[in-house]
Amino acid sequence: MKINSYTINAESPVFIIAELSANHNGSIDTAIETIKAAKRAGADCIKLQTYTADTLTIDCDKDDFLIKGTIWEGKNFYSLYKEAYTPWEWHQELMKVAMEEGLVCFSSPFDKTAVDFLENLNVPAYKIASFEITDIPLIEYVASKGKPIILSTGIAELEDIELALDACRRMGNNDIALLKCTSSYPAPINEANMVMVKDLADRFNVICGLSDHTMGATVPVVATCFGAKIIEKHFILDRSIGGPDASFSMNESEFTAMVQAVREAESAIGLVDYTLTEKQAKGKDFSRSLYVVQDMKVGDIITEENVRSIRPGFGLHPKYYNEIIGKKINKDLQKGDRLNLDFI
User: Fold this and answer.
1) Which residue of 85, 129, 257, 275 is 20 to 30 Å from 290, comparing CA positions?
2) Is the pLDDT of residue 70 over 90?
3) CA distances from 330 to 118, 216, 299 (A)
4) Are 297 and 343 in contact (CB under 8 A)?
């Protein structure tokens, strides 16, 4: 998968996305400052969401349309999305700022009109939000644009993922990534289930990653260790500004620490390699080897009393110990001499 200058594959660094979401709190100036802060924090990308309340739902107070059991309890869908949406007239300016900052910028569209709008802005990729993974016509339409498509799996069962992938491939688009996601806000760490990152990659043969709603950096680090190549986190200038997503979003210092932790985790994973680095090889000085521990004369027999396996590691390898016990030496040796097979 290639998004602008970033190649995302099994060998590449983790691609880190800062999700703007509703964290502009209705101010384009806040949105712009958030993009600049995301760059300072080490993000590779800023992601928008492209919808209006009317493209997502209808203005209705019937029980079905009232939100229950979440941090948005008591609102109806329409009022939440009216508060949270990013005005479409901002998009071009926000993408321009992102480009100037050296950030990739793309968006999650929520209907065909949003896709058409984003196509006119020439976005380099698309993200399908967790709650839209069952919207097969939308996924087909997005996939038909031939751009990389990232799908979150927060509410998806196995069949939902298969249907979404089939929709992409039916449109000739195999440039797909899947993000493990827990659609709770914030999400409990014990429900993160990060072993799924590797399973998704192996089962579906696609790039996999994490769309994270937990607090802190622990889950992104674990995801990295399980092979995540994309990590997405909600990002906010300051949670005190409020807003629908503020409570589960990272501020600049937290995001910076997460990026550093992910990069350190990447570095720690390393490669399968049994050769030693120069520094590791130097450590063999502290390993065991066979040394003379009592003065010996030509013809003396090697015993457990005059030859021992001790530190440092410059003498004969201890694997020869049982083989040489009981044999005679052919030269005078002093306490502290390295044993050598040539002396036997």
Assistant:
1) 275
2) no
3) 85, 67, 6
4) no
- Three-class SS of residue 28? helix
pTM of the predicted protein model: 0.88
For 309, list phi and psi in degrees, rounded to 5: -90, 110
Q: List, in sequence order, the alpha helices (H) in 144-189.
A: 158-170
- Residue 101's contacts (CB-CB under 8 Å, 6 or more residues apart) are 35, 36, 38, 39
Contact, 100 vs 181, CB < 8 A? no
Q: How far is CA 288 from CA 284, 308, 309, 321, 336, in A?
A: 8, 9, 6, 11, 13
Q: What is the per-residue pLDDT across 244-298, written as a single tens digit (0 to 9) for each?
A: 889 889 999 999 999 999 999 999 998 888 988 888 888 888 999 999 999 999 9
Residue 248 near residue 222, CB atoms below 8 Å? no
The three-state secondary structure class of 108 is strand
Nearest-angstrom CA–CA distance, 225 and 205: 18
Amino acid at 90: W
How far is residue 163's CA from residue 85's CA, in Å, rounded to a whole number? 28
Q: What angle do CA 236, 237, 241 make, to 5 degrees?
A: 85
Angle between helices 136-143 and 158-170 (to 10 degrees): 40
Distances (CA, A) of 200 to 32, 151, 152: 35, 12, 12
Chain CA centroid to CA 197, Å: 10
